[in-house]
Amino acid sequence: MESIFHEKQEGSLCAQHCLNNLLQGEYFSPVE
Questions:
Q1: How far apart are CA 32 and CA 27, in angstroms?
Q2: What is the pLDDT of residues 4-25, one digit of tens each?
Q3: How far is CA 14 from the centre of its chain?
Q4: pTM above 0.70, yes or no
Q5: Taking the mean position of all CA atoms in its chain, how far away is CA 20?
Q6: Angle (CA) 12 14 19, round 5°
Q7: Neighbour-count burial for 13-25, b at 16+ CB within 10 Å, e otherwise
Q8: Best label site of 5, 11, 20, 27, fewest CB within 10 Å?
Q9: DSSP string, 1-32
Q10: pLDDT given at position 25
Q11: What pLDDT does residue 1 have?
Q12: Whole-angstrom Cα distance, residue 32 to residue 28?
């Protein structure tokens, strides 16, 4: 693995950040 993806918490988007961190990429955005 090259590096670990970590998205910092912003606003009340816990599920979005959790899923993106789990999937190791920016798969979900606030719009989705």
A1: 10
A2: 898 888 788 888 989 999 999 9
A3: 9
A4: no
A5: 3
A6: 145
A7: eeebbeebeeeee
A8: 11
A9: ----------TT-HHHHHHHHHHTS----TT-
A10: 93
A11: 60
A12: 6
With CA atoms as reference, report the closest residue to 29 among 4, 3, 2, 15: 15
- Quote the tokens at residue 17: 């950040």
> With 90 as the cut, is the pLDDT of residue 30 above it?
no
Q: CA–CA separation, 28 vs 1, rounded Å?
A: 21
Indicate the pLDDT class of residue 32, thresholds 50, 70 and 90.
low
Contacts of 11 (CB under 8 A, 6+ apart): 30
CA 32/CA 4 separation, integer angstroms: 23
